[in-house]
Amino acid sequence: MLHDQIKSLLLSIARKNIIATLDKKDLREALNNERLPEVLQEKGAVFVTLTENGLLRGCVGSLEAHQSLLDDVLDNSFNAAFNDSRFAKVVKGEMKDVKIEISLLSNRVEIDYYTFADLKKKIKSKVHGVYLTYAGHSATFLPQVWDELVSHETFFVHLAQKAGLSPDFIFHNHPKIEVYTVEKFKDE
Predict the structure, then answer these.
(1) In the chain, which end has fewer C-beta atoms inside a 10 angstrom radius, N or C?
(2) Would you say 31 and 41 are in contact if contact means Cβ atoms under 8 Å apart?
(3) Are the C-beta atoms of 70 and 36 separated by less than 8 Å?
(4) What local confidence, expressed as pLDDT, does residue 188 receive?
(5) Any idea what DSSP says for residue 31?
(6) Can you give the pTM of this predicted structure?
(7) The predicted structure's pLDDT at residue 170
């Protein structure tokens, strides 16, 4: 678990990164001159979620820890603001209304299951994020998505559609299912 100071620092870095980009500056250069906590150099996988007036404004992340926590926050805050294909790029005037949430992901664990009923017993709503893969198709939902898609059936129908599969896919097929948890924190 991250200390509150580190969480606040990461949220601040994510916001400053977006603002620096809007000002056509490079925050990475400025950060090179700062003495940052060692934990930021450890590998970490994060999703950065932007909301504006309570509505999703961008969400991009990494499923695996492939770079430092600092670099993952920098890359994914930039991508959530400027490269989420579902939304227009964030503009400077919006930043006063944009809230940032960071989700630090645990390692994924594959679920061994036989039927959808069996799968339902092994997936904990509001606890597990789910990563579905099947024949070149893949999609994930963070645990926070359970707040909107409360039943396992609805959750998996939408997850299959996100992966480009038919809505009833999960009920008739056996995709690879992996779960993970998150440590989430947001600015207020």
Answers:
(1) C
(2) no
(3) yes
(4) 77
(5) H
(6) 0.91
(7) 93
**Token digits of residue 10:** 């990461």
Angle at which helices 4-22 and 69-82 cross, to 10°: 40
Chain segment 129-164, per-residue pLDDT in tens: 999 999 999 999 999 999 999 999 999 999 999 999
Among the listed residues 29, 114, 36, 21, the one whose alpha carbon sits nearest the alpha carbon of residue 68:
36
User: Could you tell me what percentage of the chain is helix, strand and coil, using 3-state DSSP and rounding each to the nearest 5?
Assistant: 40, 25, 35
Widest distance between CA atoms in the chain = 55
Written as six digits, the tokens of 80 are 């959530």
Number of H helices, E strands in the chain: 6, 8
Specify the residue for token string 């959808």.
Answer: 116
SS3 163: coil
Residue length of the chain: 188
| Domains with residue ranges and CATH for the chain | 4-105 (3.30.700.20), 109-181 (3.30.1490.150)
Q: How far apart are CA 175 and CA 165, in angstroms?
A: 11
Find the angle CA(129)-CA(130)-CA(132) to the nearest 5 degrees. 160
pLDDT digits (tens, 9 = 90+) for 16-55: 999 999 999 988 877 877 889 999 999 999 999 999 999 9
Side-chain-side CA neighbours of 124 within 13 Å: the count stands at 6
